[in-house]
Amino acid sequence: QSAMLQLAVTEIEKEAAAKEVEKQNYLAEHCPPLSLPGSMQELQELCKKLHAKIESVDEERYDTEVKLQKTTKELEDLSQKLFDLRGKFKRPPLRRVRMSADAMLRALLGSKHKVCMDLRANLKQVKKEDTEKEKDLRDVGDWRKNIEEKSGMEGRKKMFEAGES
Description:
By secondary structure, this protein is an all-alpha fold.
């Protein structure tokens, strides 16, 4: 590990030295040494030249900043699209909402569409007919009396006679 760290340190030092050399070469190429003239008119011309250079450098700087902003915006948009395509976006937590079926359909289909989910409204109403069983049940009355009548031998005799006829 220590050997790897030493190699990494030497590589970093080499890169820093190379950057410094590159910087010196660039400055020597683009920035000649300053020579101050003695007369006032020559100084004014030198100032005008320097102002013109400053303006051109500012324009370049502004253009590069705008390009940089545009490319970063494009990168963000593309990374967002990639993120959406992968489908690994965080889903918001869903809350339970108590809503009737009518309100849910109104929310889905809009308020102009009136839907009634009253399911009982469409059912037919059927009148109860008196059946024989119901008549028998009404005639029997209280079940305790019926049991007392059927208890003992007399009750069995009545049941037997009722079965024959």
